[in-house]
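Technical annex B. To support the medicinal chemistry partners, we prepared a structural model of the target in complex with adenosine-5'-triphosphate, based solely on the information shown next.
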Amino acid sequence: MTGVALGALVRVAWRIDRRAVVVLAGFLLAGAVSHGLVGVFLRELTDAATRGLLGPAAVQAVAAGAALAAGVALGRAELALMQELAERMGLAVQEEILALTASLPTIEHLERPAYLDRLRTLREESRELYFAVWALALVAEHALQIGLGVVLLAAVHPLLPLLLGAAVLPSLLVRGRAAARIDAATSSTAETARLELSLSETATSAGAAKDLRLGGAGEVLDAMAGRHWDAVSDELGRARLRAGLLTFAGSATFLAGYVAALAHAAWLAGRGQATAGDVVLVATVGVQFVTQAARLAFHLGSAAAGRHAATRLAWLRAYAAARHQDRGAAAPPPVLRGGITLAGLSFTYPGTSREVLHDLDLHLPAGATVALVGTHGSGKTTLVKLLCGLHRPSRGTILVDGRPLGDLAQDAWQARVGAVFQDHVRFELTAGETVGVGDLPKLRDPAAVAGALERADAGQVVAGLPQGLETELGETFEHGVRLSGGQWQRLALARGSMRTEPLLLVLDEPTAALDAPAESAVFARYAEAAKGHPGAVTLLITHRFPTVRMADLIVVLGEGRIVQCGTHDRLSQIPGPYADLLT
Ligand SMILES: Nc1ncnc2c1ncn2[C@@H]1O[C@H](COP(=O)(O)OP(=O)(O)OP(=O)(O)O)[C@@H](O)[C@H]1O
């Protein structure tokens, strides 16, 4: 899996710029050869000089200098090319992570802490991913250099490469262990790091400022974030220290091998079995060998660190592929004829053990306005998420005109859902875009945006803006207009109304920032509009009862079960939870 993951990264580089990859490979090869040649030319230079042959010695000196200069120049060019390629790969990997995350049909990965940690770690490590490919290229270069070095040393005496090789192997293993320690510490501190980030963001966000100032909770949050930060940096610090000590021990073994090899070469020269040039060759190649092996080990460490990130990327790819595989492909109907039916629907949030919806059986007739009411935590929003296809039922089915929702192409279904949620997003864009993102193909279609504003009765919000639809909203812009909570909510309603032919329109308490008469007016408007859409279901969720009366069908949820279902007239006449909620 890991090899496959790293292989996939190399393929990313190949896809981005195959010419750069080929040129880079050429540079790596030439760089490796030029390093080996320096030692050879120095040996020839020494032997010519000891024999008093000054002409050939001068030629060898020039050749050694040229090989050295070529090595340095190639190294620089290699670095520039790799940096460029690595930057582009980093972007490509980041884009892939975003695309994979955004294309997932359900939102499980955004609601499960374990998945969130993996995604956060992966986003942070995307730099390591491209450094890993870079490191792999350097591993190849240094391995080649070491191979040449072995050949040259063995030509002097076969024991020499063995002496150095014996010192190299244990230190390479030690480096791998050092990288594994740091990765284990990063994984085990991921949750604490996420908590620290969330607390720091809350402590510094404009939205939370009022609560924090008045409640005086800012300092407490700071202190909590500080404790989490200390815990993370202590554990990472300890892991880095241990990794550093292991790395140091590895370097010491290199040094021992080098000293032994040099002593052996000097001993051979003393016995007439090697020339002075051979001793210089061993000294030069040995130094290179030691540095190259140290670099090889270092880059193997980086590749190992990237390997863990590559494994996480491979997990994300496999996870996304699995999610896409069990996805339906059928097109949703052009209009609903029968409606939406829940059959024995139960749901437990992934990664938890408590069932929050139990055996729901319900028919939402086409053309009807249905109100979903119930106490806090009774499962209203969860049911909406299932209807929107953001989660899959744990048991039972949702049928759209008799066809399981799971059989429909998720994107196509979601493109036919209009929704406004209580915790709607404040998109800090222009006013027109803030509304237009509700139907991306019509993002900048002024007529479509104007229609949505009209349907949501939000025209007066835009009319009051200095540049109308072109007005920049929010504090992200230097001169962005700040809107009130109610104004943002009106724009969110308009955004949810961008789709003119939804099969399901969901209004999940979208009017909490409006007063009761304004909310009633909004719901009356949507209930009236629903009469013109016999092929769709309009679902309202609210805690305000004057609004509920307008619905054709009222469904009362209690602790994840349907406890009552009927019209306002019927339910208000009989004793039960609905009548209790009314009082
Ligand atoms: N992402 C989640 N992971 C695990 N449990 C969740 C998640 N979201 C909600 N729950 C649980 O599911 C239950 C139903 O929550 P839900 O948000 O659907 O209630 P609700 O009726 O919409 O409440 P409210 O009226 O307060 O908005 C609650 O017990 C809640 O704790």
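Notes passed to the chemistry partners:
The longest strand covers residues 355-365.
The domain at 332-416+501-583 is CATH 3.40.50.300 (Rossmann fold).
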